[in-house]
User: Which sequence fits this backbone?
């Protein structure tokens, strides 16, 4: 599916709405952030100033909290996110009663920066991108029910593995360490997303940006 057509579909769904909440979900390494930013750019051409983006990564627990809970090695798994905080913020965003400050993850510093982005009332379309937005488990179900339109990015396992290893190499890890991190944590998380996500409105397997 071409990105331009997908952007048109989102814009059409937003017509007449005070706010449209769009989920962009998929396993780690599938390209959610890239596609979300691309769609944001396309939508801004036709609806200037009307679109906002909330990355789920901003809701990572701090490393100090994960270390206390013995979860630092599992960072990126569902239990390493403040799902309750995400649910509360998305509820406020969907209600469109005022501005909502959301956190954004700083990959260089490896921490979330509170209040780093403001979703404003003029943002009639708000896209949210993250691994577990459609996960059919516990509090994630409540999160999934907030969305008006859902997209799922499907990438085969071999390509995911390649991308995830490349990500760790780009972070300065050697080949062995990069493969260990990708295979011991990232790929199990990817399999969980693929196996336990609820059906999406649109499944994207190939997107031209």
Assistant:
């Amino acid at each position: 599916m071409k990105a331009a057509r997908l952007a048109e579909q989102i814009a059409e769904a937003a017509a007449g709405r005070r706010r449209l909440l769009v989920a962009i979900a998929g396993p780690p390494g599938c390209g959610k952030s890239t596609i979300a930013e691309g769609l944001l750019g396309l939508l801004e051409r036709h609806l200037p100033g009307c679109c906002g983006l909330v990355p789920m990564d901003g809701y990572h627990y701090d490393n100090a909290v994960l270390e206390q809970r013995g979860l630092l090695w599992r960072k990126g798994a569902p239990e390493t996110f403040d799902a309750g905080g995400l649910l509360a913020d998305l509820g406020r965003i969907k209600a469109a009663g005022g501005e909502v400050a959301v956190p954004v993850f700083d990959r260089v510093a490896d921490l979330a920066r509170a209040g780093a982005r403001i979703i404003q009332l003029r943002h009639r379309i708000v896209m949210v991108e993250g691994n577990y937005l459609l996960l059919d488990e516990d509090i994630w179900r409540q999160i999934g029910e907030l969305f008006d339109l859902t997209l799922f990015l499907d990438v085969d396992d071999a390509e995911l593995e390649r991308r995830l290893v490349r990500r760790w190499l780009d972070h300065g890890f050697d080949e062995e360490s990069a493969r260990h991190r990708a295979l011991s944590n990232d790929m199990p998380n990817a399999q969980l997303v693929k196996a336990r996500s609820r059906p999406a409105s649109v499944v994207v397997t190939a997107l031209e940006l």
